[in-house]
């Protein structure tokens, strides 16, 4: 890999594609590592577009002869790919007490696997697949972010994009397809090490069964309006204590809590000034997690911690990039030191290595 010399001290507010374009100029990326531009519009609103580049680069000159060493994934693919498909779910490996995960007063250094073990920038397993969830559990991940959608015949499945073609072998729109049509599709697997030929788009029920008491499912409800279908599955699977209902829509949270008052919720205030009004809206319920953009972390984290609750941020365009392109695993700790309690990452195994879990 060509040497990465100097990065700008402060990266402007850009989309995922824009930030990777910056890095593709500085460090050539393979097509497999470059986010799909068509995914940018939908993903941009949820991935921390306002980037605090202090965490992307410190601006240091790096000697041309300096080697950049990035630890490989230490989990063998056969432990989570099709070779493990019929095995019992892996044991939980996170050192954090299970009781802490849904306790808004419990502050630790938590890891969230984005779409399981990584989305656009992931290299472990197809995003939002059961293999990705198995891998993330083995990587000592605490929470698994995933994307419920509902098929035309009412099945709640897990898939990020409205269209299937970026990730699957085939074409179509999820919400215009039956479950049988969705289930017939195979994942594109060329960029992954291991055998994922058996993997299919999973249902929420399957994910709950796999992850129960191993990792909390963080349900990104921005992809569907069918709150009722999702909450029904949670209740039918006796999984209220296994999930977090996460969305930027206060209306969706209101509807979900009307159906199931015991749900843990994550809110996404746009500014530090929005935190108090949104929290007051749900009083006496305190959100289990508050997601903040990086540019309001310094101001917003003390407000969240005083509730008390926990702060999550996305590190796709900051710590993940520093770890992969600069070999700087300390970038993860920097975010925790600055007030984040939970980091959502595309490379959960690197975050776990950085925290001494692997």
The CATH first-level class comes to Alpha Beta
Largest sheet: 8 strands, parallel, barrel
Helical fraction equals 25-40%
Structural class: alpha/beta
Widest sheet: strand order?
1-2-7-8-9-10-11-12
Cα-atom radius of gyration: 19 Å
Count of runs of 4 or more consecutive helical residues: 12
Provide the CATH architecture: Alpha-Beta Barrel
Overall number of structural domains: 1
Label this structure with key terms:
8-stranded parallel barrel; single chain; globular; 358 residues; alpha/beta; disordered N terminus; two-stranded antiparallel sheet; TIM Barrel; 12 helices
Folded structure, characterized:
With 358 residues, this protein is of the alpha/beta class. The protein has one domain (74-354): Phosphatidylinositol (PI) phosphodiesterase (TIM Barrel). It is built from twelve helices and twelve strands. The strands form three sheets. An eight-stranded parallel beta barrel has the order 1-2-7-8-9-10-11-12, surrounded by six helices. β9, α8 (272-282) and β10 (289-291) form a beta-alpha-beta unit. α8 (272-282) runs parallel beside α9 (297-305) and α10 packs antiparallel against α11 (330-337). The chain is globular, with a radius of gyration of 19 Å.
């Amino acid at each position: 890999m060509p040497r990465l010399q100097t990065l700008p001290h402060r990266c402007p507010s850009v989309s995922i594609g824009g930030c990777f374009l910056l890095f593709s100029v500085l460090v050539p990326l393979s097509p497999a590592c470059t986010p799909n531009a068509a995914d940018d519009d939908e993903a941009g609103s949820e991935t921390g577009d306002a980037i605090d580049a202090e965490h992307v680069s410190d601006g240091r000159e790096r000697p041309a002869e300096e080697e950049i060493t990035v630890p490989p994934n230490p989990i063998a693919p056969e432990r989570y790919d099709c070779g493990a498909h019929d095995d019992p779910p892996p044991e939980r490996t996170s050192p954090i007490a299970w009781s802490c995960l849904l306790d808004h007063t419990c502050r630790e250094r938590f890891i969230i696997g984005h779409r399981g073990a990584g989305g656009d920038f992931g290299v472990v397993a197809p995003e939002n697949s059961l293999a990705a969830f198995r891998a993330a559990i083995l990587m000592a991940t605490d929470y698994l972010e995933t994307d419920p959608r509902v098929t035309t015949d009412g099945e709640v499945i897990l898939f990020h994009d409205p269209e299937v073609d970026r990730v699957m072998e085939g074409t179509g729109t999820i919400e215009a397809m039956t479950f049988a049509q969705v289930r017939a599709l195979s994942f594109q697997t060329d960029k992954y090490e291991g055998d994922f030929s058996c993997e299919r788009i999973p249902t929420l029920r399957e994910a709950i069964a796999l992850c129960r008491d191993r990792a909390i499912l963080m349900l990104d409800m921005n992809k569907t309006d069918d709150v009722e279908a999702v909450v029904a599955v949670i209740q039918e699977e006796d999984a209220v204590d296994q999930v977090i209902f996460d969305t930027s829509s206060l209306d969706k949270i209101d509807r979900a809590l009307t159906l199931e008052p015991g749900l843990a919720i994550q809110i996404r205030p746009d500014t530090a000034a929005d935190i108090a009004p949104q929290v007051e809206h749900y009083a006496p319920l305190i959100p289990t997690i508050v997601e903040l953009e990086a540019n309001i972390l310094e101001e917003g984290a003390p407000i969240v911690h005083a509730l008390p609750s926990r702060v999550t941020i996305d590190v796709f365009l900051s710590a993940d990039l520093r770890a992969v392109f600069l070999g700087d695993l300390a970038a993860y700790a920097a975010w925790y030191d600055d007030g984040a309690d939970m980091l959502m990452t595309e490379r959960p195994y690197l975050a776990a290595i950085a925290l001494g879990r692997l």
